[in-house]
Amino acid sequence: MTPVVDASLYTAFLLAAFVRCVTPGPDMRFIVAMGGRGGPSAGVMAAFGVACAMFVHAVAAALGLSAKIAGLLRRSRRVARGPNVFSGTVFTGLAVRPAAAPK
What we know:
The chain is mostly helical.
C-alpha cells in the first residue's frame, strides 16, 4: 500500500520547517557567538552544522519518527521537558563559553 501525499499537507509541512529554520533561538545565539569569536568562517561552519541538524530533524519528521517520539513524550510532561531543557542548555553553554572567553 503506497501512502497518499496530500499537496496541501506537504506545503504546510515545508512552510512550518522553513519558519522553524528562520526563527531565532538558542541555535542562533550559538551561530552569532561562534561568528563573533572565530570570524566569518567559524560562523558559517556553525550555521552549516545547525542546518545539518535541522535537516536530520525535518527528515525524521517527514518519516513520522518525530510523531512517534512525541507520542511517547506526551505520556509524561516531566519527561517531555527534559530534551528541551537539555538542548537549550547545551546551545546556550556553547554560545556563552566562546563569547565570555578572553581573546
